[in-house]
Amino acid sequence: MSPPILPEMPPQAPRTRRGLGSRLSRLLLRMAGWRLAGTLPNVPKLVIIGAPHSSYWDGVWGLLMKSALGLDINIMIKREVMDGPLGPILRGFGLIPIDRTAAIGVVEQMQQRFAGRERMWLGITPEGTRKHVERWKSGFLRIAHAAQVPILPVLIDFPSKTFTLGPLQHTSGDMDADLARIRALFQGARGKHRGA
């Protein structure tokens, strides 16, 4: 018997219906050899950060994992990706288009979303791009701090085909120290095209 590719679902996690799409996603993940390691936290609200984000394939496997679990995770994505024929489909997967030119800032937009919902898990790539960056963007920290929610690090490791759930992190208000501490958790993770 092969090992399970998915952990148990905690009761407080935001969920969607698990139908045919969920079963198909589990089958595709199993066939491709992808799995999720670690324990999902039993909290109703959090910010998920996934890194290293080096390819669109991170998103493909991540969306399949989200669907397989039946998790209702909203994922921030630049608005331009949502323009065009795939926009409605991507919205159906829970992707939130971010207008970085809006009068109200992204942190405030997300804080309002958290305040207006009983349960919400929000996914963000801390690099903000698929290219290598020396410094991660601090938006995920500012959102988590403003919404008073923990951060769940998810390490993407292409060589082992594993998404690894790290320990929940909490902001201290010292953004530089928090960023350094959280980024250190990703040492050794290898994306499709580069490491963290």
List its traits.
196 residues, alpha/beta, 34% helix, globular
Any idea what the shape is? Answer: globular
Question: What is the C-alpha radius of gyration, as a whole number of Å?
Answer: 16 Å
Helical stretch tally: 7
Strand order of the largest sheet: 1-7-6-2-5-3-4
Overall number of domains: 1
Structural class label = alpha/beta
Runs in which pLDDT lies below 50 for 5 or more consecutive residues are: none
The major beta sheet can be summarized as:
7 strands, mixed
Counted beta strands: 7
Mean of all residue-level pLDDT scores: 85
Give the helix level as a range of percent: 25-40%
| β-sheet strand percentage | 15-25%
Order of helices and strands: HEEHEHHEHEHEEH
Q: Calculate the terminal CA-CA distance, rounded to whole Å.
A: 33 Å
Give an overview in words:
This protein is of the alpha/beta class. The chain has one domain. It is 34% helix and 18% strand. The protein contains 7 helices and 7 strands; from the N terminus they run αββαβααβαβαββα. The protein has a 7-stranded mixed beta sheet with strand order 1-7-6-2-5-3-4, with helices on both faces. Helix 1 packs across helix 2 and helix 5 packs parallel to helix 6. The longest helix has 14 residues.
